[in-house]
């Protein structure tokens, strides 16, 4: 990507937007190109400004952030990655945000560096979930592979699915956060331990499952970032996985994470 990462801030609190702007623009490689105080404004600004990343609050007047995210994800002319940034650590917000097309989910109690990193990684296509929510996503995908989410169906309790909160994050993408392997883009082969990965591909998959971005994997393995992207692409193809979420599920199912 040439030039700074272009960011749109959508939050109904002006003080929060000002704080995010100050944090993000202090990074040097991020430019806040617009602000919105309602979901309707966010959808319009996304179309007009064409940002790379949108930091989206959930609870906003007029139209909430989840519906705004859904509309932005369905707009073929908008390629922005949406990172939902919310105060509320709730399963319904988490899974509804991912189902709406969000690239990531971050809590507002995250530190400045976490916010900056989330924007950078989202712009690169490797968005991260907040550490507090990761195990719940893994449990949602991996524990009941045959089940399919139904619209309006109740979500599991945080404690029953999470087993705790002190967990790491893993990359995700703009795919629905649902239960079945079919819907997350993992075909029958992905559920089979017979999938043959090379030693290097296995290493890359393990690091993907440890929340590492392509740049971090490249640094760990002493290889180029372009090479990492090739390995990730090969892993997804071999697993029949449409995205990194499905690959992480595979890694957890088969003891690679």
Automatic annotation (TrEMBL):
**What residue stretches are annotated with the HTH luxR-type domain?**
190-255
- Family annotation (Gene3D superfamilies): 3.40.50.2300, Winged helix-like DNA-binding domain superfamily/Winged helix DNA-binding domain (1.10.10.10)
Q: Where is this region: Disordered?
A: 146-169
- The Response regulatory domain sits at 6-123
Keywords, ordered alphabetically: DNA-binding, Phosphoprotein, Transcription, Transcription regulation
Which InterPro entries would you find in this protein's record? CheY-like_superfamily, NreC/VraR/RcsB-like_REC, Sig_transdc_resp-reg_C-effctor, Sig_transdc_resp-reg_receiver, Tscrpt_reg_LuxR_C, WalR-like, WH-like_DNA-bd_sf
- Residues found modified as 4-aspartylphosphate: 57
Pfam families registered for this protein in UniProt = GerE, Response_reg
Please identify the protein, giving its name as recorded.
Response regulator transcription factor
Q: Per the UniProt entry, what species is this protein from, by scientific name?
A: Microbacterium arthrosphaerae
Lineage, uppermost ranks: Bacteria, Bacillati, Actinomycetota, Actinomycetes, Micrococcales
């Amino acid at each position: 990507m040439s030039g700074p990462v272009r960011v749109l801030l959508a939050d109904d609190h002006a003080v929060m937007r000002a704080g995010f702007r100050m944090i993000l623009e202090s990074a040097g490689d991020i430019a806040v190109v617009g602000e919105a105080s309602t979901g309707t404004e966010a959808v319009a600004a996304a179309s007009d400004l064409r940002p790379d990343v949108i930091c989206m609050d959930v609870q906003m007047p007029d139209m909430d952030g989840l519906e705004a995210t859904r509309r932005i994800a369905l707009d073929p002319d908008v390629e922005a990655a949406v990172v939902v940034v919310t105060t509320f650590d709730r399963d319904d917000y988490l899974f509804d945000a991912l189902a709406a097309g969000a690239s990531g989910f971050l809590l507002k109690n995250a530190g400045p560096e976490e916010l900056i990193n989330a924007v950078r990684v989202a712009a690169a296509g490797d968005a991260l979930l907040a550490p507090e929510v990761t195990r719940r996503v893994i449990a949602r995908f991996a524990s009941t592979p045959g089940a399919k989410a139904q619209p309006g169906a109740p979500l599991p309790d945080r404690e029953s699915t999470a087993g705790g909160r002190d967990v790491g994050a893993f990359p995700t993408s703009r795919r629905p956060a649902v239960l079945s392997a079919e819907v997350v883009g993992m075909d029958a082969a992905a559920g089979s331990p017979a999938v043959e990965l090379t030693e290097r591909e296995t290493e890359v998959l393990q690091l993907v499952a440890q929340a590492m971005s392509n740049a971090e994997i490249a640094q760990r393995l002493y290889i180029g970032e372009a090479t990492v992207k090739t390995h990730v692409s090969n892993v997804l193809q071999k697993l029949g996985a449409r995205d990194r979420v499905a690959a992480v599920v595979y890694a957890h199912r088969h003891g690679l994470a």
